[in-house]
Specification:
About 8% of the residues have low confidence. The longest helix has 27 residues. The chain has a five-stranded mixed barrel. It is built from five helices and six strands; from the N terminus they run ααββββββααα. It has 195 residues and is an alpha+beta fold. It has a domain of 117 residues: OB fold (Dihydrolipoamide Acetyltransferase, E2P) (Beta Barrel), CATH 2.40.50.120.
Amino acid sequence: MINAIIKSIVFFFLFCYVNLNACQCPLSGLSIAECDKYDIVFKGRVKNVIECDNKFGEAVFEIDELYKGQAKKTFKVLFECNTPCYQKFNVGDEWIIYSRYKQVNNCKLDWCSRSRKFFKSEKEDFYTLTYGNDYDDELKFLRKNLGLHRFLKEAKIETGNRNTIPNVNQTIIILLCSITVIVLFYFIFNKWKSK
């Protein structure tokens, strides 16, 4: 009898400990008001992942459809790894991302946002149960209510020849011109000083 009570108490504390460390995000329904909470909403595929080293990891996305915000076709998403709700980004995975800008060319993902991964098998898609709608319904809602936005254009920066080292002929010409200017300055200064 005492062993059963002790086992029950131990089980209760283990159960409470596991539930305290579990991911618990507030439930949110798909609505315009929910979308208004975020700066950027898009559907894209993971091109590259850099796992967390100090605080943030990075996932570079190739955006397929931009529903809200401004972004280039390639966009970086920063994420935390040391949270209970952390999920692994894999190259090639498709996601719908809801986030807020951290800088112009990246955002910081909150794992409790509506962001969701696409699963080929509906049985694996735990977001459907959590959010109350499946992946395709979410895409239809975003396309209908937010529409598709254009990407920012890649600006070509033409600074290519600014930091090139001169060749031997250019160096000799620069050196001769510099010596000529110094000699001219010397003669002009001495002439002015002697007056």
